[in-house]
Amino acid sequence: MTRLGLPDTVRACLFDMDGVLTRTATVHEAAWKETFDAFLRRRDGAAFRPFDHTDYDRYVDGMPRADGVRSFLASRGIHLPEGADDDPPDHDTVHGLGNRKNGLVLEKIKELGVEAFPGSVRYAQAARDAGLRRAVVSSSANCRAVLAAAGIEDLFEVRIDGLVAADRHLPGKPHPDTFLAAAHDLGTPPEAAAVFEDALAGMEAGRAGGFGFVVGVNRADQAGELRRHGADVVVDDLAELLGEAP
Fold first, then answer.
1. Neighbours of 128 (CB within 10 A)
2. Cα 202 to the chain's mean position, in Å?
3. pTM for this prediction
4. pLDDT digit string (tens) for 112-171?
5. DSSP sequence for 112-178
6. Which residues does UniProt assign to the signal peptide (predicted)?
């Protein structure tokens, strides 16, 4: 293992954004909850069962927006029309609910700003200084704006986000395709790349893609689940891989 906590064979780092680089996972979870609870309340009345943190971890976290809508609703036995990409946020369709959630995220980011995890910033800087290639892999269509707002966009050479995935027709996590695309764009084979993820879907993508090392970032007290879903190592903060305090 090198001083970066990675095998010597690793030449590239592929970072998820929400929850790994930036403290935006809580913003996304809050937006999903507001979206789904309003829909379920309209549908089921006062007896509705709210969307909770377990739902977020199991059915939504790390997935492309429309996949998250389908996944959670299927868990409740609900199936909605797909609708169109530009459905208004008050339409009860897959894309309508997804657009409602996205609008809420943008409002919350504008209101609260974006904070990068200091330990993750130091780690990305150390990877750069050590000559490792670096990419961001996110299902978010707002990835570039979030990185810019956090002041860390220049730390990464490649960005595979929701917009790039849609343009290239890449399925999202838990499929490995977006991570594989990032490794390809960096000129690095999967076995020489490390994946950094906080979501269970991201762990599965790392395992499915044959990557050289998978780091689980335990932001949601689920270390055991991260390991069971494919992590080679689990840390609470990337600073631990540098031998530092968060």
1. 16
2. 7
3. 0.79
4. 788 999 999 999 999 999 999 999 999 888 899 899 989 999 999 999 999 999 999 999
5. H---B-HHHHHHHHHHHHTT-EEEEE-S-TTHHHHHHHHT-GGG-SEEE-HHHHHHHT---TTSSHH
6. none
Distance CA 113, CA 212 (A): 34
DSSP, collapsed to helix, strand or coil, labels residue 230 as coil
Beta strands 193-197; 12-15: pairing state:
parallel
> Tens digit of pLDDT for each residue in 77-89?
999 999 999 999 9
Inter-helix orientation angle 177-185/200-208, to 10°:
60
Residues annotated as catalytic are: 16, 18
Residue pair 146/136 in contact (Cβ under 8 Å)? The answer is: no
Report the alpha-carbon angle 82-87-90, nearest 5.
100
Query: What is the Cα–Cα distance from 109 to 98, expressed in whole angstroms?
Result: 17
